Amino acid sequence: MSSIQSSSQGRGRKRASTFSSKTQPTASTPTTTTGNTRPQHRNFQQNLIDHGVYPEEYEYHDGRIPPAPDNWEEINQRLIQPRPSLSPSQFSDGAFRKLKRADAHASKENKVTYAVIPIIEGDVRDGRCVSGGVPLTNLDHLTDGTLSPGNPDLFYGAHPEQLNRRIRNELRGHIVPSTQEDLPMAPNFFLAAKGPDGSAAVARRQACYDGALGARGIQSLQSYGQPVPIYDNNAYTVTSIYNDGQLKMYTSHPSQPTGPENRPEYFMNQLRSFSVTDTPESFRQGATAYRNARDWAKEKRDEFIEAANGRMPDTYTESQSLGSSGQGRASVSTAGPVLVESDTSADELTLEEQTYTPFRKRPRRELPESNQTQGGRDRHTRSE
Questions:
Q1: DSSP structural state of residue 343
Q2: What is the pLDDT of residue 26?
Q3: Residue-wise pLDDT tens digits, 125-146
Q4: Adjacency order of strands within the sheet including 246-255
Q5: Where are the alpha helices (DSSP H) in the chain?
Q6: 125 with 294: CB under 8 angstroms?
Q7: Which of 166, 287, 337, 356 is geometrically suited to a Cys-Cys bond with 229, CB 3.0 to 4.6 A?
Q8: What is the DSSP letter of 113?
Q9: 231 to 215, 257, 292, 328: CA distances (angstroms)
Q10: Cβ contact 171:224 at 8 Å
Q11: Which of 33-47, 132-146, 199-213, 276-290 has the lowest mean pLDDT?
Q12: pTM of the full predicted structure?
């Protein structure tokens, strides 16, 4: 979908940040500063390029070609794994004809989103992991502050409570997309859908932008608690475009800054493309790749969240001797993360199957007697 009007963009934006290897995500109260250059504008893509966010098939002025991510083969192998729900016995030729009619009758972008995309998506078991049509106004600016917030038609992320609240607050400018904090966090799977009159070029710009925002967030999670920021030249973010019966899928990944004051660069690479309205088999291939990529993105996202929780030092215990009262010590503890179910339906699950943020101790403070509780440390538990 296109970006929202500037009146609603103004709420929850942050001030511009220069993203270098030393950049920290913003945790302060958002201001109303926002940009209004949208993907429909001709200058949008050049602004991204000027700030090291490159579209697919970008070529440097000296002829160099950016490398594909190192896990390229791993991702492509995952895309082709068969899914029971898309076998010919489960997704019939009649279901394919229904898809073709829905696409032919979708005269507007919102009809594509509500009538066509759900057929490609299949059953989504965990609705809390998906959102869309919500501008990503809480994220720090990716370039110079002149671009409007990202606004994907769909994005998949984690339950906020999966990540320890303290880490979430420290990285919020990179991983918490909205001031409505119960929306999915650390999104790394995006979709841009266009109607028959929509521009494929606009969709590519939108996907390039959204993918870089997602890749930055995952890199921040990956680097949390590490002695140096992590740049492994792997992609953990996938963006997709649906336009006029064509489904295209891309990866986005960052590269290490070339100097201490330089920004990371972000690269977009096309994974696959499918004409999903061509034949039943072409639809099955496209939907299989799409759903497999969505599951794979969730697995990587959950891995980095669990690892970040594990790297956080034992949470301090706020305690203070109560002197002559003889009532011992009081402490405050916080709840650990809870992992959630997959985004996909149960039948499909039967088959398969930067930013460095140092730990900073918080000061101790006295607690009044009325707040005394039984002491305890944070426990980071995982529900299976």
A1: S
A2: 56
A3: 899 999 999 999 999 999 999 9
A4: 53-54, 265-275, 246-255, 237-243, 185-194, 154-158, 130-131
A5: 6-9, 44-50, 72-79, 93-105, 109-111, 117-121, 165-170, 172-175, 200-223, 280-311, 346-349
A6: no
A7: 356
A8: I
A9: 11, 9, 25, 47
A10: yes
A11: 33-47
A12: 0.76
Which of 5, 300, 21, 357 is closest to 149 using CA atoms?
A: 5
E-state strands within the chain: 53-54, 130-131, 154-158, 185-194, 237-243, 246-255, 265-275
11-34 residues labelled b (16+ CB within 10 A) or e (exposed): ebbbebbebebebbbbeeebeeeb
Distance CA 266, CA 214 (A): 10
Cα separation, 302 vs 1, in Å, equals: 27
How many other CB atoms are there within 10 angstroms of residue 208's CB atom? 27
SS3 183: coil
Assigned token pair, 123: 């059953």
* Identity at 232, one-letter amino acid code: D
Rounded Cα distance, 297 and 323, in Å: 53
Task: Provide CB contacts within 8 A for 236, sequence distance 6+.
Answer: 188, 215, 218, 222, 253, 297, 300, 301, 304
d(CA 165, CA 305): 12
